[in-house]
Amino acid sequence: MSRITLSRFLIEQQRKAGTLPPELRLLIETVGRACKAISYSVNKGALAGILGEAGTGNIQGEAQKKLDVIANDFLLDANEWGGSLAAMASEEMELPYHIPGEYPKGEYLLMFDPLDGSSNIDVNISVGTIFSILRCPEGIDHPTQEAFLQPGTKQVAAGYTVYGPQTMLVLTFGSGVHGFTLDREHGSFVLTHSDMQVPETTQEFAINMSNMRHWEAPVKRYVDEMLAGKTGPLGKDYNMRWVASMVAEVHRIITRGGIFMYPKDARDPDKAGKLRIMYEGNPMAFIIEQAGGAATNGYQRIMEIQPKGLHERVAVFLGSKEEVERITAYHQQ
Ligand code: P6P
């Protein structure tokens, strides 16, 4: 069977009745090319002197890794000239990035976490890029952050690239979820996982257990029930994973099932959670829902939340539908 590259897949989707406008197809291909460049840099690691701290901080008050900055620059450089974008926004930049005057602008807004989980970089554990694409509201020529503040249901595409034993790009534009593996010999992403589906049930959960004393009651109850195993109320034994890299967790879950949780906790009651809704919560929720899973903040679909700020945080419970519905029900009681 001939290999279907990302470019061929997207062109064939474009040919189908209106599933993928040409400008959006080009944008996705360009993001894929930037992720290839990030993959080659990530894989060089110490050989390229790019591990460790950049010596700078970002809007989140987090120390930036050299590769955070490199990945952010790759995505800006690859996308600013293409003509598909009205503006970009990133975890690494306080304000939106405006398209330089010498380049044409387009109708889309691109948001990304250029290198999620970058604290794992120096210890050689999988990291990833997460991206989300919205339409710029009509008539806005110079998008400020307000133009980005749309609920996740307005996303036209979303995806992640996981830089692990394989580099894989996983993508949705509302017609299912498709996975592409980077063939380094040819430098192209090849379709290897068509129509990915999250198993509806699971025996595997992901949460940072060291925060247990800070959790709210529904989360404590749920984790205790899973730890009680076969003789407990859920009647089965559970396994646990925590990679501290959301992209790696989501990829495991979309591949073999599971539930990922990063709840709000008492460490900082003013924060809704740790993860950011615009470029972590919403894109991952879109992907998981398109793959038949569920994604809530404990009370409602993440994608239905009306964001109030570009770097707003959100509690995240996502993955196998049966378990996400369970923990969400516990929050309602
Ligand atoms: P903790 C990485 O910093 C990240 O944003 C997600 O990728 C990951 O799931 C989470 O934070 C890990 O957080 O508190 O366990 O280090």
Automatic annotation (TrEMBL):
Belongs to the FBPase class 1 family. NCBIfam families: PRK09293.1-1, PRK09293.1-3, PRK09293.1-4. One of its GO terms (biological process) is gluconeogenesis. One of its GO terms (molecular function) is fructose 1,6-bisphosphate 1-phosphatase activity. Residues 198-332 form the Fructose-1-6-bisphosphatase class 1 C-terminal domain. Gene3D superfamilies: 3.40.190.80, Fructose-1,6-Bisphosphatase, subunit A, domain 1 (3.30.540.10). This is Fructose-1,6-bisphosphatase class 1. The lineage of its organism: Bacteria, Pseudomonadati, Pseudomonadota, Betaproteobacteria, Neisseriales. SUPFAM superfamilies: Carbohydrate phosphatase. Binds 2 magnesium ions per subunit. Its cofactor is Mg(2+). Substrate binds at D116, G117, S118, S119, N208, K274. The gene is fbp. InterPro entries: FBPase_C_dom (IPR044015), FBPase_class-1 (IPR000146), FBPase_N (IPR033391), FBPtase (IPR028343). It holds the Pfam family FBPase. It comes from Aquitalea magnusonii.
